[in-house]
Amino acid sequence: MAKLLIIINEDRFFLSHRKEIALRARQAGHDVTIVCKDTGDRAAVEALGLRMIDLPINPTGMNIREEFRTLRFLYKLYKKERPDIVHHVGLKTILWGGLAAKLAKCHGVVNAVSGLGVLFSNKKPGLKTRGVMALMKYANHRDNIRAIFQNHEDKALFVRHNIIQEQDCVYIKGSGVNLKDFAFTPEPDGQEVNIIFTARMVKEKGILVLVEAAELLRKEMQGRVHFWLCGMLSNNPKAISREELESLCDGDYIQWLGYRSDIKQLLQQSHIMAFPSYYREGLPLSLIEAAAIGRPIVTTQWYGCKDTVEEGENGFLVPVRDSAALADRLRTLINDKELRLRMGRRSREKAEKEFDIEQVLSKHLEIYEELVRTKGSHT
Questions:
Q1: 61-104 pLDDT, tens per residue?
Q2: pTM surpassing 0.85?
């Protein structure tokens, strides 16, 4: 039995994005422990039969003392637990967990790059970004390492800067979606059209662009269209404050729904997914969930986002920060029910072909088993 530690920023993110991987690994015989920040969902993690260790981490912080505390905690944990595999999810855990794993001489390391966030939002890396890249390069130049990328642009950046070797890269298109749970659902009947956006309330996710598009459409659409902004507030440096959100929303035409645990039901009640992000996404889970339910998608020609849409088939791609183009594409879908239905069916077909959680799970188990085999060959 291999000992597997999955290190991820927060318990909420684990439950929404990596739960199925942990459960399938345990089912395959691995001893699985989740290491993440306890934000109040520890009971939900442990109810799955999984051990959880609270991780001292500030997901968006940059205080050097806090960062060193996270590194020291992971180093001591790895020395104590002596895991066969450590699986880091997200840039910060890859950074500090990767360094800790190298110093503690962990055998196998899996680094899942689920987007690059605000740190890599500038075209030319700044001093802080170059420092992070240098530390990751040191940590990743080792044996028995695999880096999982959700889009080809992130992989190309890491390889180009020699952060990871080409032969150690694996491409897995997103976190996957349970196609039985997120079953195809026809759009709701009625004259009103619900346009949904689901993400953390961070500006680079395109929230302000979507609100601008909604305002461009207000005169012709108010009374028969609702824009739903669904997601929690964030402590990200580019986050939108509660006051700003509430000033943008009128509670009817544009609504902020806050954090919701019933995303599937909201998608079923929606007609269109709008996601005008210019954040350094991996491959947004919100978009593949919408595709699985069978909704047309309007998103940007941007990292990860563009991989969820075949232009004109299951949705539309618009330039980043272009509220007028977004409004135009939304108008087309609002006014054409047959087009929405046709694109919704294409979305479901794309989800079945490319985003099935079973494909994601089998690829992860292959990586784990390969790393375990290499340990056996060295003993």
A1: 788 999 999 999 999 999 999 999 999 999 999 999 999 999 99
A2: yes
- Cβ burial of 143 (10 Å; 0-12, 13-18, 19+) is exposed
Alpha carbon separation from 196 to 44, 132, 247, 271, 296 (Å, rounded): 27, 35, 19, 8, 11
Summarize pLDDT for 144-183 with one digit per residue, the tens.
999 999 999 999 999 999 999 999 999 999 999 999 999 9
Q: Would you state the structure tokens that stand for residue 248, as one six-digit string?
A: 């943008």
Counting Cα atoms < 13 Å in the Cβ hemisphere of 353 gives 10
Picking from 269, 250, 257, the residue whose alpha carbon sits closest to that of residue 194 is 269
Q: How far apart are the first and last CA of the chain?
A: 15
Q: Taking Cα atoms as reference points, which of 269, 184, 198 lies closest to residue 229?
A: 198
Q: Which among 102, 130, 110 has a CA at the least distance from the CA of 4?
A: 110
Q: Closest by alpha carbon to 268, among 339, 344, 352?
A: 344
CA 149 to chain centre: 11
Report how far residue 299's alpha carbon sits from residue 213's, in angstroms, rounded to the nearest whole number.
13
Q: For tokens 């794993």, what's the residue?
A: 101
Looking at 116-269, which runs of residues are DSSP E strands?
Answer: 145-149, 169-171, 193-198, 225-230, 254-258
In single-letter form, the type of residue at position 334 comes to I
DSSP 168: G
| Distance from C-alpha of 321 to C-alpha of 273, rounded to nearest angstrom | 17
| Cβ atoms within 10 Å, residue 306 | 17
